[in-house]
Design goal:
Blueprint (H helix, E strand, L loop, with lengths): L1 H15 L15 E4 L10 E4 L13 E10 L1 E7 L5 E9 L3 E11 L5 E10 L2 E9 L11 E4 L10 E3 L13 E10 L1 E6 L6 E9 L2 E11 L5 E9 L2 E9 L8 E11 L13 E8 L3 E6 L6 E9 L4 E10 L5 E9 L5 E8 L9 E6 L2 E4 L2 E10 L2 E9 L6 E9 L6 E4 L6 E7 L5 E5 L10 E4 L8 E11 L5 E12 L1
Antiparallel strand pairs: 1-3, 2-3, 3-6, 4-5, 4-7, 5-6, 7-8, 9-11, 10-11, 11-14, 12-13, 13-14, 15-16, 17-18, 18-21, 19-20, 19-22, 20-21, 22-23, 24-25, 24-34, 26-27, 27-28, 28-30, 29-32, 30-31, 32-33, 33-34
């Protein structure tokens, strides 16, 4: 559904401006960039988090994380299409160009079991794919699984250890152990090895009946080199696998330089930093060896980075933030090299929530008054000669969702009423109920009556807010109709 909207924006531009192409512009404060993907179009890297169970609404733990290479800072809105009754959406802003991790929150409720729901993520002209497995409610979605390990009791048979393991170098998403299990009772599982040598392997998910594998992901920093054994157990079954850690390279002699330091990610007071919050500086070494660079905690946040130099060279070094900013403002951080004591200073700007007017999205849905004032996302952009306004929000419980959009040729959306039953511009409307039912109407489909429409104030590339109303009928996949009346909105762009 969301991907059709994206296509329609481009289609609209093609109808009216087939001979005129326009690049993305930052005049309206939007970012420019592209999704990271591999040669066959899969999002790389990709993290799919949470359990996906039929007839179970998305929770905060249901999200995916994609990588975006931002060539220009600004606001972003990234969505997937709707597959099997659910979708993913993420919005925010980046202050510095570079590669950042963006989290897309899940919305909706899976309708049917699936071994691979294929989603397409769309950001501007780039797209990539990822898959999600959905387990049937009756197939163990609400039950703890029972299984035995391959090789129990003893060594885990067929265990595959993935990734590079080096003393003193933090593990990450690429460091996994894949072990064989035979499931007698399908359901959910949570496994952990406990910390050995500073590293823990853990995993959670859903298992069907029969022989299959479980993937455990490593966290932590290894404290020593050599083969390390990790025992794991579930009920009365247990086995162990071995991970071999390479010795750390001897410390390099190097100096660091913060001139031209670049900041990636969004830094807001009160919002915890993530792996996408980084600062890149440069370092020059006289030969190969390891490095470790840290800063003290300032404004509740510190930065650190470790790794190795392949040879005597100058190269960029990425320092990752940890902690939660305590206030807004610009703060100085002094980075120190563990070897040689070289230091340099860079600054990071933390912002407060914009003081704009209170936002709201309200409507009467099926005769019931509702608000969608949580996680409001609103954006206005010009893409290939088409003006595109998108607005969405959810209720306080996070189990109902409303979004609508207007797109037409040009660089502005003039004040007026836009009706879904037209091909001279594009209108999209969607409501997702707390039971996971999705009701929709858009320019590409046959729509119920009265026609869904959006009345909007004049919106341009310099607008900071959008206000208006919306009303009309929406229809689900079975043809059931729900009426939207008294819809009103005031949102920050």
């Amino acid at each position: 559904m969301k991907f059709l909207h994206f296509l329609m924006v481009l289609f609209t531009a093609g109808i009216f401006l087939s001979s005129c192409q326009k690049e993305y512009s930052s005049e309206n404060g939007n970012s420019i960039g592209s999704l990271q993907s591999d040669a066959i179009g899969d999002c790389m890297p990709i993290l799919v988090n949470g359990l996906y169970i039929t007839d179970t609404a998305m929770k905060a733990s249901n999200y995916v994380e994609v990588q975006v290479n931002f060539s220009q800072s600004g606001a972003y809105l990234i969505k997937t299409d709707t597959i099997n009754g659910y979708s993913f959406t993420g919005s925010g802003s980046v202050s510095v160009a570079g590669v950042s991790t963006v989290r897309l929150q899940g919305f909706g409720k899976p309708v049917a079991p699936s071994t691979a729901d294929i989603f397409q993520v769309v950001y501007q002209t780039s797209a990539c794919d990822f898959s999600v497995t959905v387990t049937a409610t009756g197939g163990g979605g609400g039950t703890t699984s029972a299984f035995t390990f391959g090789g129990s009791p003893g060594a885990c048979t067929g265990a595959a250890i993935n990734g590079t393991y080096t003393e003193g170098t933090a593990t990450g998403a690429a460091n996994t152990a894949v072990i064989n299990v035979n499931v007698t009772t399908p359901g959910t599982y949570t496994l952990t090895t406990g910390a050995v040598n500073g590293v823990t392997f853990a995993g959670t998910g859903i298992l069907a009946a029969g022989a299959q594998t479980i993937t455990l992901t490593a966290t932590g920093t290894p404290t020593a080199a050599g083969p390390i054994t990790y025992p794991i157990s579930a009920g009365s079954s247990n086995c162990s696998f071995t991970v071999t850690y390479s010795a750390a390279a001897p410390p390099a002699t190097y100096t660091i330089d913060c001139t031209g330091a670049t900041q990636s990610g969004t830094y807001h007071a009160g919002t915890a930093t993530t792996s996408g919050n980084t600062v890149t500086i440069s370092a020059t070494s006289t030969g190969p060896g390891s490095y470790n660079i840290t800063t003290p905690v300032v404004n509740g946040v510190s930065f650190s980075g470790s790794g190795s130099f392949p040879s005597g060279t100058t190269q960029p070094i990425t320092l990752t933030a940890t902690g939660t900013p305590t206030g807004a403002g610009t703060f100085a951080y002094t980075a120190t090299a563990a070897t040689g004591g070289s230091t340099c200073t860079f600054s990071v700007t933390f912002t407060a929530a914009p003081p704009g007017p209170a936002q709201f999205i309200t409507a009467t849905v099926g005769g019931v008054s509702k608000t969608f004032n949580t996680n409001i996302t609103a954006s206005f952009s010009t893409v290939s000669g088409a003006a595109d306004l998108q607005i969405s929000g959810e209720n306080t419980a996070g189990d109902e969702f409303m979004d609508f959009a207007v797109a037409l040729a040009g660089t502005t959306i003039p004040a007026g009423t836009y009706n879904v039953n037209t091909m001279t511009y594009f209108v999209d409307g969607n409501y997702e109920s707390s039971t996971g039912d999705i009701y929709s109407a858009n320019t590409l489909s046959a729509n119920p009556t009265p026609a869904f429409s959006v009345t909007v104030s004049n919106v341009t590339t310099t607008s900071t807010t959008a206000t208006g109303t919306f009303t009309g009928a929406l229809k689900d996949g079975l043809g059931n109709v729900i009426q939207i009346t008294n819809g009103a909105f005031s949102v920050n762009l």
